[in-house]
Design the sequence.
């Protein structure tokens, strides 16, 4: 496996431009969580010309709805949710500066095109490895939409949060490349 | 007539809500170990390693292996010589889910289909009750997450398509599902019945322990062929490329109407959770 690339958030244009589909990346810094219900509200805010509850510039959004934290724990289990449910909202988030998305599963063609246009990347974390992933989450605060429960927007401080680049800023797709390599007739 | 108090059902469901989400079955853990050995892709191997570690953390620390602790699907097999006292079975199951999901710090993921308002206690459960011979009561608790449920399909094939059409549909379903249902997966399918029965039996097929052979030799052969075809697609663990996308294919067959060939496919993620209690 290739060398792990260490990056801190917020991500810069250069950080993102240097990444290639298949790169193993370790993220440290702040991630913001949002699933489809939260995205719907975030995009509605943008449509009304209002401020988002966090600074989108260079932001990395993690598609996750954690399980409740046990007493004394920072967070419950917290693996990625399927990303295509956010496809309808992602370009809008890129327009205001979001640079990274973390989820699982293939993105729609127009989202991949938008990543090329706005210089953003899509990462995958291991779907279902939620108890393991929770270990790299150090602090969690709900910052918006508490009524959405697991789907509220959270600010997560992470250390050595492991992801792999699925779509880079050149439009490459690791799911397609990986399958191509191992396909047998 | 044997009497069983409804509170025993509640207690069994409460306990299994937690144990199913914390303790991955040994059959699945063994399949991960085999996968780690057989997988050719380095990324795929890393996925198997992570899943083994994840299942250990979940078991030891009593935390859910996946944040999506699922829709509570419960199969109840009740002997016809059993009389449940002190409450209705469905209510007893829901009470168990309510308690288990709260006490176990499990995620509540059930909502109204239109308003999306969360019911906040993970109820109602989906309960399938079957009346069987004898005086036993068996409860199987099989929570399933939304990511893999979204990949399920029911189709009504043309009978002339036969086995080939069935196999093609199942393989295509896996290709289309890709990384969405968190591979490595288990593929369940029911051929025959009626559309609603096939959907239920495809889900139930997932419960068969991984690595066991189908008692029907015809289906056993089809399972082997399908597993090879699905894995030859090359999608691998997490869809990142590799040898092992599916850990197993579980088929069931049911007689159908002379004019129909129903097929239901239900893909289960690697967090293949199910526990049983006999009362
Ligand atoms: S598909 Fe399964 S492993 Fe993946 S997030 Fe859903 S419940 Fe968890």
Sequence:
């Amino acid at each position: 496996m290739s060398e792990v690339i260490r990056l801190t958030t917020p991500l810069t244009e250069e950080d993102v431009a240097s990444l290639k589909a298949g790169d193993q990346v370790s993220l440290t810094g702040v991630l913001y969580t949002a699933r489809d219900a939260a995205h719907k509200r975030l995009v509605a805010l943008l449509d009304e010309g209002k401020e988002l509850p966090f600074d989108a510039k260079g932001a990395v959004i993690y598609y996750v709805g954690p399980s409740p934290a046990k007493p004394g724990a920072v967070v419950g289990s917290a693996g990625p949710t399927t990303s295509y449910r956010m496809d309808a909202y992602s370009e809008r988030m890129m327009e205001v500066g979001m640079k990274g998305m973390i989820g699982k599963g293939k993105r729609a063609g127009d989202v991949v095109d938008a990543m090329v246009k706005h210089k953003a990347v899509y990462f995958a974390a291991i779907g279902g490895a939620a108890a393991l992933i929770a270990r790299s989450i150090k602090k969690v605060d709900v910052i918006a939409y508490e009524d959405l429960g697991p789907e509220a927007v959270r600010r997560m401080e992470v250390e050595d949060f492991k992801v792999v680049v699925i779509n880079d800023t050149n439009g490459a797709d690791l799911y397609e490349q990986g399958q191509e390599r191992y396909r047998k007739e | 007539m044997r009497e069983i108090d409804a509170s025993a059902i509640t207690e069994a469901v409460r306990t299994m809500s937690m144990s199913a989400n914390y303790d991955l079955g040994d059959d699945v853990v063994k399949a991960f170990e085999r996968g780690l050995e057989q997988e050719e892709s380095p990324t795929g191997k890393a996925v198997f390693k992570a899943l083994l570690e994840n299942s250990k953390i979940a078991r030891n620390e009593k935390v859910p292996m996946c944040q999506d602790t699922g829709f509570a699907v419960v199969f109840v097999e009740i002997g016809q010589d059993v009389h449940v006292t002190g409450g209705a079975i469905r209510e007893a199951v829901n009470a168990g889910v309510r308690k288990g999901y709260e006490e176990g710090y499990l995620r509540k993921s059930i909502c109204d289909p239109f308003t999306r308002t969360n019911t906040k206690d993970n109820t109602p459960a989906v309960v399938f009750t079957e009346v069987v011979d004898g005086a036993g009561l068996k409860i199987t608790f099989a929570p399933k997450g939304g990511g893999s449920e979204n990949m399920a399909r029911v189709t009504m094939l043309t009978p002339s398509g036969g086995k080939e059409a069935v196999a093609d549909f199942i393989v295509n379903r896996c290709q289309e599902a890709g990384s969405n249902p968190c591979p490595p997966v288990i593929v369940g399918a029911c051929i025959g019945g009626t559309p609603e029965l096939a959907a239920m039996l495809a889900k139930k097929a997932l419960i068969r322990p991984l690595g066991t052979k189908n008692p029907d030799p015809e289906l056993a052969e089809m399972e082997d062929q399908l597993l090879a075809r699905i894995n030859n697609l090359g999608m691998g663990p997490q869809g990142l490329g590799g040898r092992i996308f599916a850990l197993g294919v579980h088929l069931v067959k049911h007689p159908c109407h002379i004019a129909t060939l129903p097929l239901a496919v239900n893909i289960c993620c690697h967090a293949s959770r199910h526990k049983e209690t006999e009362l």
